[in-house]
């Protein structure tokens, strides 16, 4: 497995890198999915350290977790514990997902944009134009998944929304999202006839 361990404006020592590799390996070996690479980023905000960990599995799924603590090791341990909890929660489904899928998850390329938010504090001021200002443009990938796999991927990533192609029906882009009431919503443009 490839590791990318880095710090945002802080130095990451060799001992911490070894600790990260050892602990992630110990968590991942318990669960199916054969990890391909892991990215761990440490940062500091005020007096607290933040650790964001992302592990990509060969099945196309991604596990993400974030930990915040006053000490850097504690921040990593917190994110690692969250990642283990996610994997434990989905262990049976990960096994089933791995058995059913003969080919890896197909990914389609797409553009992703970050738009400027409103910086105006006066509610009565009108924008100069209706065109939003694009701050960043990035390349992203849209996976081809079943609806159940998409919900599981959204839960594993801790994301509020996931855009995917429904592999069961060629209905274009689908969306699953977490509703305010705690349930999961699914937008399927192909069923709107």
Automatic annotation (TrEMBL):
A cellular component term, taken from the record's GO annotations: cytosolic small ribosomal subunit
Supply the name of the protein: Ribosome hibernation promoting factor
Coiled-coil-forming residues are 73-100
User: Gene encoding this polypeptide?
Assistant: hpf
A GO BP term here is: negative regulation of translational elongation
InterPro entries assigned: HPF/YfiA_ribosome-assoc, HPF_long/plastid, RHF-like, RHF/RaiA, Ribosom_S30AE_C, Ribosom_S30AE_C_sf
Q: Which residues form the signal peptide?
A: none
Quaternary organization: Interacts with 100S ribosomes. Associates exclusively with 100S ribosomes, which are dimers of 70S ribosomes.
Its annotated function is as follows: Required for dimerization of active 70S ribosomes into 100S ribosomes in stationary phase; 100S ribosomes are translationally inactive and sometimes present during exponential growth.
Domain Sigma 54 modulation/S30EA ribosomal protein C-terminal, chain residue ranges per copy: 131-185
Organism this protein belongs to: Tranquillimonas alkanivorans
Keywords, alphabetical? Coiled coil, Cytoplasm, Ribonucleoprotein, Ribosomal protein, Translation regulation
What GO terms are given for molecular function?
ribosomal small subunit binding
């Amino acid at each position: 497995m490839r590791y990318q361990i880095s710090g945002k404006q802080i130095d990451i020592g060799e001992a911490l890198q070894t600790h990260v590799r050892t602990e992630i390996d110990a968590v991942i070996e318990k669960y199916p999915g054969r990890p391909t690479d892991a990215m761990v980023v440490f940062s500091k905000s005020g007096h607290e350290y933040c650790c964001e960990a992302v592990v990509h599995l060969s099945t196309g799924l991604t596990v993400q977790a974030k930990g915040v603590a006053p000490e850097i090791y504690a921040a990593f341990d917190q994110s690692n514990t969250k990642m283990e909890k996610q994997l434990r929660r989905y262990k049976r489904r990960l096994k089933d997902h791995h058995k059913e899928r003969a080919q890896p998850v197909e990914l389609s390329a797409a553009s992703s944009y970050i738009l400027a938010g409103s910086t105006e504090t006066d509610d009565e001021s009108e924008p100069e134009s209706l065109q939003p200002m694009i701050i960043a443009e990035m390349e992203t990938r849209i996976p081809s998944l079943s609806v159940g796999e998409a919900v599981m991927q959204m839960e594993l990533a801790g994301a509020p929304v996931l855009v995917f192609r429904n592999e069961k029906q060629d209905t274009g882009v689908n969306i699953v999202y977490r509703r305010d009431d705690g349930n999961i919503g699914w937008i399927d443009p192909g069923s709107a006839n």
